[in-house]
Amino acid sequence: MKSDLLDSIMFTVGLLAVLRSKSHNGATIGVMVTASHNPEADNGVKLVEPLGEMLDQAWEEYAITLANCETHQQLQAALDDIIKKCKINMDAPANIVVARDTRPSGEALVASLKDGVKALNGKITDYGLQTTPQLHYVTRCINTANTPNAYGEPTTDGYHKKLADAFKKIVSGKPRLSPLLVDCANGIGAVALKELCQHLGEDLAVTSSNTDINGKGVLNFECGADYVKIGQKAPRGTSLSPNQRACSLDGDADRIMVIVSNLAGVFRLLDGDKIATLAAGFIMSKIKEANVTHADKSPLRVGLVQTAYANGSSTDYVKNKLQVPTVFTPTGVKHLHHEAAHFDVGVYFEANGHGTVLFSDAAVTAFKNAEGKNEAEKKAIETLRALSDLINQTVGDALSDMLMVEAILVCTQQSFKQWDSAYTDLPSRQEKVKVASRAAFVPIKADTELVEPKGLQEKINAQVAKFKKGRCFVRPSGTEDVVRVYAEAETKEETETLTYAVCGIVFDSFGGVGERPSKFKKVDAAGNII
Ligand SMILES: CC(=O)N[C@H]1[C@@H](OP(=O)(O)O)O[C@H](CO)[C@@H](O)[C@@H]1O
């Protein structure tokens, strides 16, 4: 094995991708390289299944096993184990496509990946610089080519054309909005946006900021969706005039797309929850207008998938006003994606802005077969067909989500203010607590409760009971060595008190390590905040 850790991990990812492809009889597997040596950046390499979805859970575990091998012998034994368990025919062909975002480490990591693929005689095609969702799109296109479910042309141009054509169909004949300002986080989204705009022409006026893809240390620096969401402030270099529509992409333009606005001088952020409710409401209304059902006249099932981090007000709004069934899953988009696939129209977004809308084959067939009795029905059917092309069916996609939001706002001629006023978020706060072992925290019920460590959940419940509209949960992070504490309550002050009381309990009685942050509250044995 190579000595450098990241290189050797990429090498084993190459081996794994080959095995995954062989296990699908040579179907193409995608590998997206976004890894970086910068610990602040979004480290990761993402494997893409043949239909463009995220890697299967069992295979993720195989990936971890391979990455943890320290010797050649261990690696060989782990590979043999996977081959045996999955009954992989090693004579089958293997096809891999790879792409990378603009992070400087990308090129070297792709080279190591190629070595791994070639070591097992796989074939690899390099798509160069792409956004993560573009690579997901390409993978699905390749594997569905010449089938009735062909997803599109497997090229960057094909991607842009598909999105732009669908967008044009939806907004056709409607007055356009003022220009949209897009913060590209100095990442690959800047390149993709430019290309997309060439296809959109006059149908969407865009100005962009933070487009320096070659600058050192500028990726996501004081810009990008994470920065905007966490800091609740505008990205650098992006001056928002009153009522200016703007959005922030993240570094690889997949997992976050957050809309920012300056509503009458007040900074407002419309996050994944707001995008999800906008999309669900719009699609529901179009299905009704189109009068479209399954062939047996049964209604299309629309559903929304959220995580515990969704603001409680958004959940109330969806249940009581939109009357759309809501399902909760543990944190992590792959859980949401799988759950959304159970509906005919499954809308899923994490509050942080990663998400999409999935249309079942049955829904797409219903749209295709619907004829419409009058002009209004026909137009709504056209819109639904175009939406299923516009919205990336493989994974959350910042550019596709951006166009979806724009299309809905154009169609409904809705202002940001109207959209924002559908419901008011409850004040919320999220904090991290460093603990000796996050594995000691075992969540259940879609992350909303803990069964371990014993006694903690009762203490959390006792604090929550003190606050009107109080809600709080603690869960181990899957990506950082911390546990996260999330709380909501009726006022900002109450939310902070609840958050820091629970942080204090976790830190003081359940294994806190390092310096104790002074904002954490002290709570006595009877649950009183001291
Ligand atoms: C509270 C939060 O935002 N958690 C994020 C974060 O997961 P954690 O397991 O909380 O570390 O990273 C995930 C992967 O990017 C993302 O899907 C998720 O939403």
TrEMBL record:
Phosphoacetylglucosamine mutase AMG1 domain mapped to chain residues: 179-256, 271-411
Presence of keyword Magnesium: yes
CDD domains reported in the protein's UniProt record: PGM3 (cd03086)
Binding site for Mg(2+): 36, 250, 252, 254
Catalytic activity: N-acetyl-alpha-D-glucosamine 1-phosphate = N-acetyl-D-glucosamine 6-phosphate
Gene3D superfamilies linked to this entry: Alpha-D-Glucose-1,6-Bisphosphate, subunit A, domain 3 (3.40.120.10), Alpha-D-phosphohexomutase, C-terminal domain (3.30.310.50)
Xref: Pfam families: AMG1_II (PF21405), AMG1_III (PF21404), PGM_PMM_I (PF02878), PGM_PMM_IV (PF00408)
SUPFAM superfamilies: Phosphoglucomutase, C-terminal domain (SSF55957), Phosphoglucomutase, first 3 domains (SSF53738)
GO biological process annotation, one example: cell wall organization
Annotated cofactor note: Binds 1 Mg(2+) ion per subunit.
Pathway as given in its UniProt record: Nucleotide-sugar biosynthesis; UDP-N-acetyl-alpha-D-glucosamine biosynthesis; N-acetyl-alpha-D-glucosamine 1-phosphate from alpha-D-glucosamine 6-phosphate (route I): step 2/2
EC number(s) recorded for this UniProt protein: 5.4.2.3
Enzyme's top EC category: isomerase
Keywords: Carbohydrate metabolism, Cell wall biogenesis/degradation, Isomerase, Magnesium, Metal-binding, Phosphoprotein
GO molecular function terms noted in the UniProt entry: magnesium ion binding; phosphoacetylglucosamine mutase activity
InterPro entries assigned: A-D-PHexomutase_a/b/a-I, A-D-PHexomutase_a/b/a-I/II/III, A-D-PHexomutase_C, A-D-PHexomutase_C_sf, A-D-PHexomutase_CS, AMG1_II, AMG1_III, PAGM
Ranges of residues in domain Alpha-D-phosphohexomutase C-terminal: 453-498
Primary role: Catalyzes the conversion of GlcNAc-6-P into GlcNAc-1-P during the synthesis of uridine diphosphate/UDP-GlcNAc, which is a biosynthetic precursor of chitin and also supplies the amino sugars for N-linked oligosaccharides of glycoproteins.
Family named by the database record: Belongs to the phosphohexose mutase family.
Name this polypeptide is given: Phosphoacetylglucosamine mutase
Natural source organism: Boothiomyces macroporosus
Designated gene of the protein: PCM1
